[in-house]
Amino acid sequence: MHPHWPVAVFIVRWILGLLFFMAGYWKVFVLTPAQHAQQYFVDGFADSWIPDWLLQLFGVTIPFVELLAGILLCAGLRTREALIAVGLLLIVTTYGHTLQQPLFDIDGHTFTRLALIIFLLLAPLKSDRYSVDGWMLRYKEKIT
Predict the structure, then answer these.
(1) pLDDT per position as a tens digit, 51-86
(2) Burial class of 104 by CB neighbour count within 10 A (0 to 12, 13 to 18, 19+)
(3) How far apart are CA 103 and CA 43, in angstroms?
(4) Would you state the pLDDT for residue 83?
(5) How many angstroms separate the Cα of 107 from the Cα of each of 36, 84, 115?
(6) Is 130 in contact with 14 (CB distance < 8 Å)?
(7) pTM of the predicted structure, to 2 decimals
(8) Residue 47 scores a pLDDT above 80
(9) pLDDT in tens, 20-38
(10) Which of 33, 98, 29 is CA-nearest to residue 62?
(11) What mean pLDDT, rounded, does the chain reach?
(12) What share of the chain is helix, strand, coil (3-state, %, to 5)?
């Protein structure tokens, strides 16, 4: 393992965590989940095949998932699960964007976040030294 893996993983994990945390924070505490659902889901997809109840569910739930996943990523706790959750969010939002605009340009927020997620998922588990997961892994190895 390259000696700079732990620092690289720490930096990328924090950047990704902050991106999702701040998006979730704004949607939960400033915009509100109900307004997020109405503005970005119900109004935006009223003419689509997607039922209103599903749009409401996703619109209200996604801000909390972003907020929690951002916190987990910054702490480095349950990192793999948080990465899978935000990866699934990217799939949902990409589908929504392409439903509205079939030639959606993925170069913005989506591609950047996807690249960071892939980097972290491919990083060796033991390289995440500066995290709760890393501490627990070292502790587990020490007691066995």
Answers:
(1) 999 999 999 999 999 999 999 999 999 999 999 999
(2) middle
(3) 21
(4) 98
(5) 23, 21, 11
(6) no
(7) 0.93
(8) yes
(9) 999 999 999 999 999 999 9
(10) 33
(11) 95
(12) 80, 0, 20
DSSP type of residue 74: H
Please report where in the chains the tokens 């109900």 appear, as a residue. 34
Are the beta carbons of 93 and 70 closer than 8 angstroms?
A: no
Domain range for 35 is 5-143
What's the pLDDT tens digit per position in 109-141?
899 999 999 999 999 989 999 999 999 999 988
**Contact residues for 112 (Cβ-Cβ < 8 A; gap 6+):** none
CA distance 89 to 79: 15
First to last CA, the chain: 23
CB atoms within 10 A of CB 20: 26
> What's the full length of the chain, in residues?
144
Number of domains present in the structure of the chain: 1
